[in-house]
Amino acid sequence: MTAVVERPGRRTRTGSRGRPDEPPGQRSPLATIGFLLPAMVPLTVFWIVPMILVFWWSFTNWDMMAPEYDIVGLENYELLITRGALGQVLWNTTYFTVGTVVPTVVGGLLLALLLHKRLRGSSLYRTIIFSPWVTPMVAMSIVFTWIFEPRVGLANYVMTSVGLPALPWASSSDWAMVVIIIVTVWRQLGWAMIFYTVALGRVPADLYEAAEMDGSSSWAKFKDITLPMISPTTFFLVIIMTIEALQAFDQIDVITQGGPAGSTRTLLYFYYQAAFERFQVGEAAAVAVFLVVLTGMIALAQFVVGRRFVHYQ
Amino acid sequence: MATSRTSEPLDASLDEAVSPPELGPPPVHTGPRRLRDLVGTTGRHVGLIVMTGLIALPFLWMVTNSIKTTDEMWAWPPVWWPAEAVWSNFPDAWSAARFGRYMFNSFFVAAAIVAIQTVNTAMLAYAITQMRFWGRDMLFGLVLVTYMLPVPATYVVSFIILSRLGWLDSYQGLIVSNSVSVLAIFLVRQAFLQVPRDYIEAARMDGASHWKVLWQICFPLAKPVFITVGILNFIVQYNNYFWPRLITRSDEMRLVSVGLRQFFIEAGAYGIQWPLIMAAATFIVLPLLIGFLFVQKWLVRAVSLTSGQK
């Protein structure tokens, strides 16, 4: 589509009867501006300008208090790399992302398949599985903190009951991320399930009928028909969940605050601490830029890879 | 949502995957197909009961713990059901922090945001789909790009902008800084493109203004999309935590998640208040779960709308 330049005088007729609150047809640039402003002003002030400024600030050493700041070039970026904090942060981010996306996608598909054919009580199952998604992450993170309480928590009770050792969970740097991942997967599993339910409903039934006539096994049908047909959904889900995982905050802030020993400090949490705990705006801005570029690349991958390899509508 | 739940072959494969092996292979002689279906259905129920049980468990644990005594809460092995339900935990928790205020704030802010978003989304989507102006597609491209970007990356700058405006710790700050939903613009634009051109042309011939065409023709036709997105954004804003936490200071301005977290930190530090924390979590989560039952179909629609895009 190309922008169509407005042609004055084309719709004079509509304007002739216009009352003051009735801008004439397509002629009034004022009306256009009036229609755009209510959304474009906040969008500009709180989304577009900050996005541009954050790039600029990443080249400065502002500390949020001082009236002035210097331009320090790439120093913030250099510090990030040389001080070595970024390595652990990136590892944590990857761990969290893979750890939430894979179980959510696989579990969501499995649940959608279980509920796909007519089944007594399926709407009740679906309601319960989907319900965590509306609950506030903060409240449920607090509940999970209690479930994973190391001494008397329900999780350790279950573990010891089946003969497994009790774990220190959120108080140990080895297990804290696991707790964060469990909370996250618990909350978004139903959402992925609904996504797949919709996708499965769109697979044409005659494909299965054809395969059935050829005598294909159930597994073959799943592998050769279902999986390829829902691959756009899988791909889309992976992209969205990855972008969302990069922005996870609430559960980390409530359960571990990035600890213990930085074991749950993701890129976003690192950014938050730099900006709002240490007030190193320049450093935080550099991390933000990194986050933006990373997200941008994933979003771009969606367009490029999506167009090229996932050919089913 | 249009889902067919009748494509049998798919489920047959699934049934095999989940049926417990100890039930053995179906005997070949007596109606194998039927028995296999029965085994499959049972297997699916077992799998689903286990999954739904695991998912519901945190809710159940939250509720039973909210009526325990502190001693019962710290007991080992855990007490499943308290000897005597301590219902007074609820009023005690309610008065221990200003939860009424927090809930009002969340409700008010979320409602105001959704109301504003409905109007400005409708107007922008109308301009993009029904008006001709220079740079229209570029503008829509710009809006789309903001959808892709990680919003928290803007927080450090938005925070300073809000403080310069003097809007930190205020309703207008909470509302205006969240008053655009790019997802809404995206979906409503899609819906407005479906509005038959004849309707709009006819209304224009009758001298209807853009404003009238928007609210009397486009809006009613796209109402389901507005309701879907409105409910979705209401829940997101009601539960919102990160940004409201950054821009509110005073107790009066806290949204419910921020207030609950504060209560958790202050009360949890002593360990003796855990039943109250669970009670607070319960009266915050339960209304949402009950509301969910009523709006569930709209949320399912929201998921299918978003998945239908790219």
What is the CATH class name of the domain at 98-266 in chain A? Mainly Alpha
Query: What is the CATH fold-level name of the domain at 98-266 in chain A?
Result: MetI-like fold
Number of helices of chain A: 14
Rg of chain B:
26 Å
- Quickly count the helices of chain B: 15
Kindly report how far apart the N and C termini of chain A lie: 22 Å
Are there runs of chain A of 5+ residues with pLDDT below 50, and where? 1-25
- The computed structural class of chain B is mainly alpha
The coarse overall form of chain B would be flat
SSE string of chain B: HHHHHHHHHHHHHHH
Oligomer: heterodimer
Share of β-strand residues of chain B: under 5%
Cα shape of chain A: globular
Question: What's the helix and strand layout?
Answer:
The complex is a heterodimer of chains A (313) and B (310).
Chain A: H1 12-16, H2 29-57, H3 75-82, H4 85-114, H5 122-130, H6 137-147, H7 154-161, H8 176-201, H9 205-213, H10 218-229, H11 231-245, H12 250-255, H13 267-276, H14 281-309
Chain B: H1 8-18, H2 32-66, H3 70-73, H4 89-96, H5 99-130, H6 136-148, H7 155-165, H8 171-176, H9 182-193, H10 197-205, H11 210-221, H12 223-239, H13 242-247, H14 256-268, H15 274-307
Helix pairs in contact in B: 1-2, 2-15, 4-15, 5-9, 5-12, 5-14, 6-9, 9-12, 10-11, 12-15, 14-15
What this model shows, in words?
The complex is a heterodimer of chains A (313) and B (310). In chain A, helix 13 (267-276) runs antiparallel to helix 14. Chain A is 66% helix and 0% strand. Chain A has a domain at 98-266: MetI-like (MetI-like fold, Orthogonal Bundle). Chain A is mostly helical. Chain A has helices at residues 12-16, 29-57, 75-82, 85-114, 122-130, 137-147, 154-161, 176-201, 205-213, 218-229, 231-245, 250-255, 267-276, 281-309. In chain A, 44% of the residues are buried. The model of chain A is unreliable at 1-25 (pLDDT under 50). In chain B, helix 1 (8-18) crosses helix 2 (32-66), helix 12 (223-239) runs antiparallel to helix 15 and helix 14 (256-268) packs antiparallel against helix 15. Chain B has helices at 8-18, 32-66, 70-73, 89-96, 99-130, 136-148, 155-165, 171-176, 182-193, 197-205, 210-221, 223-239, 242-247, 256-268, 274-307. The two termini of chain B are 18 Å apart. Chain B is flat and about 75 Å long. With 310 residues, chain B is mainly α. Chains A and B meet through helix 1, helix 2, helix 4, helix 5 and helix 6 of A and helix 1, helix 2, helix 5, helix 6 and helix 7 of B. Chain A: It is found in: Cell membrane. Chain A: Keywords: Cell membrane, Membrane, Transmembrane, Transmembrane helix, Transport. Chain A: Residues 1-27 are annotated as: Disordered. Chain A: The chain crosses the membrane at residues 35-59, 95-115, 127-147, 167-186, 225-243, 284-305. Chain A: Its main location: membrane.
